[in-house]
Structure formats: C-alpha cells, structure tokens
Design a protein that fits this description.
about 350 residues; alpha/beta; Rossmann fold; 2 domains; seven-stranded mixed sheet
Length: about 350
C-alpha cells in the first residue's frame, strides 16, 4: 500500500508522527480518525475507532488489530500494551471513558500519550489526564496540536462499557420510553428539539409502513417511541431497523431496543453502503457536524442513496436545521417534497418515492 504524504494526514496524526520516538513496545491507538496513519508507523498493534467507516479501513492493515468502539472483544486484552496513544475525543465526558480504557490495556510501567488539537479543547482536557496521571508533561506543540506524555501510568483493569451506561426518559406526545446513554453520544442529555418536532409529526401524521428504517438512529429513541405509540394506539406495529456510524450509538440503540422490547435490527454502517434491504418508510434526524465544523456530506450521500432502499410509494421523513439545503436535494433524489412543520430552527420534510 502506497503511503500518503505526511502533510495530507490529520493534524493530530502528524503531531503523533513527529513524536513517534515515544512509541516503544506493544502499541495501542485509541480513537483513530483515519486509517492513513497506520502505514506511517513502523510496526503493528491495536487500532480502535468509533467510526464504522474508519474501522473497515483499519481492517485492511494486516499488522494491526482493528477494533470498533469500546465493546470490541479485542479490548479484553488487559495489561498488554506498553505505549497507549489516546486521541482527544469530541466530547469531554468521553475522554474520561477513553482514559479508563487506556489504563485497562496498560502493562506495568506503560506510557500514555494524549494528542489533540487546541481548537478541540486539548488544554482543558489536561486536567482530566492529570487526574489519572499526575506526572504528565507536555512534550510538543505541533500542527495546532499538543502532545502530552505520562510515564508509568497505573494500570486499572476491569473496563466494561456497560459500567458507563446511563438511562433517561424521553417523552413526547404523551408517550415515554427509556433511552440508554454513553459519553460522546448525541443528545445524551435529553430529547433534542429537532427529534421532538419529528416525533410530533409522526404522532399527527404517521408513516404508513410495515417496516421502517431510522437512519442515523443515535440511541434508538425514534424506533422505541414509534413502536410504543403504535402499541398504545393498538395499531399494527412496524419493525424499526436502525443504522448509525458511531459505536456508542450502536451500543445504546441496542440497549434501548432491548429495554423497550422493540422489534428491529441495529446496524453499524457508514451510510447505507453495503446495506441491501428495502423499507417502506425511512425516517431520519441526520447529523450535520464533524467535530466543530458544519458537514452535511453524510446526509447528502444518504439522500443520493436512499431511493434504492425505499420501496415504490414509500415515504422519507426527515428533520433538519432550516438553514441546510436539504429540500432541493430531496426533490432531486426522491421527488416532490413538502414541509410538514417548521420554525426558525428546524423543518420536517416529507417525500414519497414514485411508483
């Protein structure tokens, strides 16, 4: 495999490569954002990503043990790694969980390296790092990033992602469901306003479908709520499948479905690539951020792909921030589109695939 120019790598990955002399012994990388980093490192090891697409790319590197998120069986290898790199996650709460995972993987006298961009909060994250590694020191500032290193961290075996699960109640239109949460998952702190508007329209104008897909399902609140509402109204219960790209979301959605006895399957996938199923209804509150940047590429790709997964006459219902250009994209890829509800922040769109 041909290596890319180092300058084309992510800033945090470039900063690590500049300091790869710190990487001794058995190596674990937690939170890898691009598989292009791996060929630049001299030896293999463990590489974990929470992103389903990145994880699949990691699998193509034979010298590396690829892991998907915090529940991968390969992470049971406690006390195995001598150098552990933690890339700064987007959510501050997730860093605490990622550090706990790092300590469970650490051998005696292991070295822990934290790498992150300044704009993503590396300076504030150091307090969390010092809580588990008081002797940590900054070793470099490069590519708008900082690199911190802690020598001989204290191992802490027994990491289980289930210990980090929390539960909350989501209520809308008189119907409540229990929802699982993990650090780093969107809307862990409650039902967001966009999803609430979407659920309100589903209560007033239900999607007529025997099988539904919740794209970018997050913690599974839409599927759980939809089936609970159908049961309460004594309506036919639609199977609600879910797709999400993030490992924590997949874990939470499966837990939410189990707790609420929801019928449906949760898939880990980067968009609809590799999924062959057809649905008569597709619902989504898609993300539009990558880190701190607005990024609609995932939803644009979804709208390009969705028609081949929607049965003739099937409905697409989507909520999005009103400033995003989704109406024209839905019209182009699906057909005539209408606005079911809107306010200054959000709009719920509905479109049907032609027969």
């Amino acid at each position: 495999m041909q290596n890319l120019p180092v300058s084309s790598l992510l800033n945090s990955h470039q900063a690590l490569l500049k300091n790869q002399h710190l990487l001794t012994g058995r190596l674990a990388l937690l939170g890898v954002a691009s598989a292009h980093l791996l060929p630049e490192l001299p030896a293999g090891g463990l590489a974990m990503s929470e992103h389903a697409g990145v994880y699949r790319a990691l699998q193509s590197h034979e010298a590396w043990q690829a892991c998907f998120g915090y529940e991968d069986p390969a992470l049971l290898a406690e006390g195995t790694y001598d150098s552990i790199v933690v890339f700064l996650p987007k959510a501050r709460a997730e860093l605490e969980m990622r550090l706990a995972l790092a300590r469970s993987l650490a051998s005696e006298n292991a070295r822990l390296i934290l790498v992150g961009e300044k704009k993503e909060g590396i300076v504030g994250a150091i307090k969390q790092l010092k809580a588990v590694a008081p002797q940590v020191a900054k070793v470099d500032s490069a590519r708008h990033c900082q690199v911190w290193c802690a020598q001989a961290i204290e191992p802490a075996p027994g990491f289980r992602v289930q210990d980090w699960l929390t539960w909350s109640v989501a209520e809308c239109a008189g119907m409540s469901v229990e929802v699982a949460g993990l650090p780093g998952i969107f809307s862990q702190d409650g039902l967001d306003n966009g999803t609430r508007m979407l659920l309100d329209t589903l209560a007033e104008q239900p999607v007529r479908a025997d099988r539904v897909l919740d794209f970018a399902c997050g913690a599974g609140v839409i599927g759980a709520w939809l089936q609970a509402k159908q049961v309460a109204r004594e309506e036919p219960v639609a199977s609600v499948d879910g797709v999400d790209v993030q490992a924590q979301a997949v874990i939470c959605a499966r837990e939410t479905y189990q707790r609420n006895r929801v019928t449906g399957t949760i898939h880990a996938s980067d968009g609809l690539a590799g999924i062959d199923a057809l649905w008569s209804g597709i619902i989504s509150n898609p993300p539009f951020h990558t880190g701190v940047k607005t990024d609609t590429s995932m939803t644009e790709q979804f709208l390009q792909d969705v028609k081949r997964h929607l049965k003739p006459g099937g409905e697409l219902r989507l909520v999005a921030n009103s400033f995003l250009p989704y109406e024209s994209l839905i019209k182009r890829h699906i057909g005539r589109v209408e606005r079911l509800r809107e306010d200054r922040r959000f709009t719920v769109y509905r479109a049907f695939r032609g027969k």
